[in-house]
Design goal:
single chain; alpha+beta; 10 helices; 17 strands; elongated
Length: 316
């Protein structure tokens, strides 16, 4: 895909270092787009990522995979639209999207499903892609998931039951700190997910250990212990301005003693108070059609409020 000004090429392993350098310097990328993260599940997805150049200069990336005749902005990632340079302009993004659509159509791809990077992850404003697809694509809003986010510099008050849980945890002597014992936490997490929802964690224990080894400053476990026993924990993904709660779980005793409340208090006020946002993640199910009211009630109890994660689709 090359008209002399805009060139769009398929990613391959020979471009790995260039890709990773661009992600690290982009205005809306996170470590999830680093190939050392993306490629841990490369056997599950047919990668069709794109690299977009303007006048020979790498300008944007699209982490993507292909399934049948549909290009997805990567299904293995929670979010992941166009990752852009700080120099990116709206006019060039419009041209990139137009040329991308033309090239994909020539390849026989008939549909695009696009997950935008939520604005809380933008280091500077980065919604040129949303205008570009509005202008160039007859899209539909396919899904709108709601996440719950706290602005850590202006936190809202906690609800009474969350304050009560914190008080119980404090009086019970629960100690909270960073932990390397992912195996114990994974047992707690797996049991809860299987018992309550009939599902397993997105990552296996071996996968999360591999990723944590690759990104030790971005993936961390914080746990609450009483008398040496882990009662609950929270795995966080740390990006430049957002701390995201990837997994939260507790034992029955931990739930009774408010261990999650103690862990969240520790993260907010002791470990990450200098960050801008704490994101609890989505509370929607069945492709955003169902709201898990109990789950979002708990998150909103910590003062979290709504941020939408949107997915768009268009025919080529």
């Amino acid at each position: 895909m090359n008209d002399g000004t805009v060139e769009i090429v398929r990613y391959d392993a020979s471009r790995r270092s260039e890709w990773n350098r661009f992600v690290a310097q982009s205005k809306n990328g996170t470590f999830l787009f680093d190939r050392n993260y993306m490629d841990y599940h490369s056997d599950r997805f047919a990668d069709h990522s794109l690299m977009c150049y303007v006048k020979g200069r790498l300008y944007a990336l699209l982490p993507a995979n292909i399934r049948e005749d549909t290009l997805f902005s990567h299904q293995g990632l929670t979010y992941g639209g166009l990752v852009m340079s700080a120099h990116c302009t709206t006019v060039h993004l419009m041209e990139i999207v137009r040329k991308m659509n033309e090239g994909l159509r020539e390849e026989g791809i008939r549909r695009v499903v696009y997950k935008a990077v939520p604005w809380i992850y933008h280091l500077v404003p980065a919604e040129e892609d949303l205008y570009a697809i509005h202008h160039e694509c007859r899209y539909t809003l396919l899904e709108r998931d709601i996440s719950s986010t706290v602005m850590l510099q202006r936190p809202l008050g906690w609800k009474k039951d969350r304050r009560h849980g914190l008080k119980k945890a404090t009086e019970s002597g629960i100690a909270v700190g960073q932990s390397a014992d992912y195996a114990t936490f994974w047992n707690i997490l797996t049991h809860n997910l299987e018992t309550c929802h009939g599902v397993s964690p997105v990552h296996s224990l071996n996968e999360i250990l591999l990723l944590q080894q690759r990104f030790p400053h971005n993936i961390m476990l914080f746990a609450g212990h009483k008398d040496g026993e882990m009662l609950g924990g929270c795995v966080v993904y740390v990006t430049p301005q957002v701390v995201h709660a990837q997994y939260i779980s507790a034992t029955p005793e931990g739930k009774r003693l408010g261990v999650v409340d103690a862990i969240i208090h520790h993260l907010f006020f002791e470990t990450f108070p200098q960050f801008t946002y704490f994101d609890f993640g989505k509370s929607t199910e069945q492709h955003s059609d169902t709201l898990n009211e109990n789950l979002i009630y708990q998150k909103e109890g910590f003062g979290a409020r709504g941020v939408c994660y949107d997915t768009y689709a268009w025919e080529l």
